[in-house]
Amino acid sequence: MTTTKLFKKKIPEQTYDKASQKPVIKASICNGEQIAGFKDLHTGKIEEVMLIKGPADLERFKKMYGIEDEIGKEY
User: Fold this and answer.
1) 55 with 6: CB under 8 angstroms?
2) Confidence of residue 43 (pLDDT cuts 50, 70, 90)
3) In the chain, is it the N or the C terminus that has fewer CB atoms within a 10 Å radius of its CB?
């Protein structure tokens, strides 16, 4: 017996400090792995939040944090 979901699971909205952090995608040049997170503008340190396996994951990350702009990549 197969079941189908009638309702999508609501993505909880998160927040970040827009004054001191910016969203970034940390990408590996070796294997192409991408991790979404936030870069501290003062220290340059990146706080990793989630692994991005495809476009759907990136959209989920952007929706979670209310990000509408494009996110820059750092290698």
Assistant:
1) no
2) very high
3) N
